[in-house]
Amino acid sequence: MLTVALSKGRLLEPTVDFLRRAGIEVPEDILSSRRLLAPDSTGSYKFLLVKPTDLPTYVEYGVAAAGICGRDVLLEVTPDLHQPLDLGFGRCTLVLAGKGGGRKENHNLLSTTRVATKYPRITERFFRSRGLPAEVIYLSGSVELAPNLGLAETIMDLVETGRTLRENGLVVLEEVAESTARVVVNRASFHIQQAEVQEFLRRLRKVLE
Predict the structure, then answer these.
(1) What is the DSSP-derived secondary structure letter of residue 29?
(2) Range with the poorest average pLDDT among 34-38, 92-96, 179-183, 198-202
(3) Distance between CA atoms of residues 161 and 62, nearest Å
(4) What is the dihedral sign for C-alpha 76, 78, 79, 83?
């Protein structure tokens, strides 16, 4: 039996849909149940539902042999995992955003001192690579409020349509990275459960063809 970790939240429904199209029998109630561990009816798979930011840890430490999460999480956590497949769905962009103005004002915002974000490591790397000083303020949610309340001049956040940014009077200053759903595999499991892992990947690749 292959244990596969799935990200709770925005990626769960499209992930379940993708797995079912791959012929993997995900439990019918997985989207509505409070169960965090759900075996399929064939005895081939066991699904573990975890917070997106925790998923790489569960896979890296072998609790799950494989998992599906966003590239944004992998860029933030930088786990030691195989990343064999980009599944293509859940497309979003990680952006630096702030209260927009003219070109000069936007340039000044890039040289900001305070940035609010759910992605502190990515943000620190971004500003360090530019040689710019930045105080990174970690927030677990509602990051868009920070510039309006004076907590930070800019934010680093994941956007899908940009609607939330616009509703809060923010504009994209720079696109930092693209994110889609990725398959990750524990390095030991890649060899120890080679047959099961390869069959899992084969089914997923079939959908991508």
Answers:
(1) T
(2) 34-38
(3) 35
(4) positive
Structure-token match 């084969």, residue found: 202
Q: Confirm whether pTM is higher than 0.85.
A: yes
What total number of domains does the chain contain?
A: 2
**Cα-based distances in Å from 14 to 20, 90, 159, 166, 206:** 10, 7, 17, 26, 16
Give the integer Cα–Cα distance in Å for 1 and 192. 12
Give the domain range for residue 80. Answer: 2-90+180-208
Cβ contact 1:45 at 8 Å: yes
State whether 14 and 78 are in the same domain: yes
Write the CATH number for 189. 3.40.190.10
> Does 168 share its domain with 68?
no
Per cent of the chain over pLDDT 90 is 81
Domain match, 146 and 45 both: no
Q: What is the pLDDT of residue 111?
A: 65
